[in-house]
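Sequence of Transcriptional regulator, LacI family (Sediminibacterium ginsengisoli).
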Amino acid sequence: MKFEAVTIKDIAKALGLSTSTVSRALRDSYEISPETKKLVLEYAEKINYRPNPIALSLKEKRSRSIGIIVCEIANSFFSQIINGIESIAYDKGYNVIIAQSHESYDRELINVQYLASRSIDGLLVSVSSETKDLEHLQSLHARGLPIVFFDRIVEDIDTHKVTVDNFKGAAEATAHLAATGHKHIAALANSEYLSITRERLAGYKEGLAQHGLPYDESLVKYCPHGGLIYEEVEQAMDELLSQKKKPDAIFATADKLTTNCLRYFKARNIRVPEDIALLGFSNIDLTELLSPSLSVVRQPAFEIGQVATNLLVDLIESKRPVKDFETQVLQPHLFIRESSLKKTKKK
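Predicted 3D structure, token representation.
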């Protein structure tokens, strides 16, 4: 049985009124008597009538909805961002439509086209790891759709952007590993096309330099899908551990890379930190409860969502074209726990 929403016509038929009278009553028009308004509103509430959002968007030229594109909702970092987005959006009277790219450019393209066809008022985007061609976003931006980028930002489109100080987070993490006596620190990185990858690897190099350690390109491995595909992490770790000079520490630059490193080590009975230390970007809430507890760079994900949404709503509701844009950079926090500490191997 096909679901059919209650319409103004249904109310009019049930009450023996014209559709125009019901419509005016629902809009609290002065043309309708208080008695008729009361009758219509009480019946509408009884049958759980809700205005058709598509019809309203055609009339008001606004849908009161915003689109969100992330790589994966199951990723704790992005789920926390979405919570931040919703906390602001609903308070300001907007619904959200969430789409996942799963790190695929093709899926991102389809999602963007679908959301645009739904007449969203604005778009919040964290681009996929495969995204190099930005035409789908540039064309919408050129046509006036408000867009705000967060986390994985796009430099070539002039709009608001929200990110964290990736350079600082990575530099502090790498410097900590070096300060605790690790000499061969490898970096497990996301797609090299992403802004966060470039910034975090620059911080990684800085952290090495602070302790006089040379940058060794053979100790840097890229995972094009950022750990979403475990086999990419497995291959990268196999290559690192097969080298003559094996790394004594791993700096993982993304949430899924960090957790999949742990998965890799457990499958091979590699002890952390006795055999190899681990420190990574992660927003998983239970990192301190793992054994060993996990050292992480944690990002203010909820706040990223809030800031990005406020900026987007300002764009949507501005009475004049906005020409001055800002990039807000929030601060990450380094949490030192057992996984990154130097321990003597038991013989």
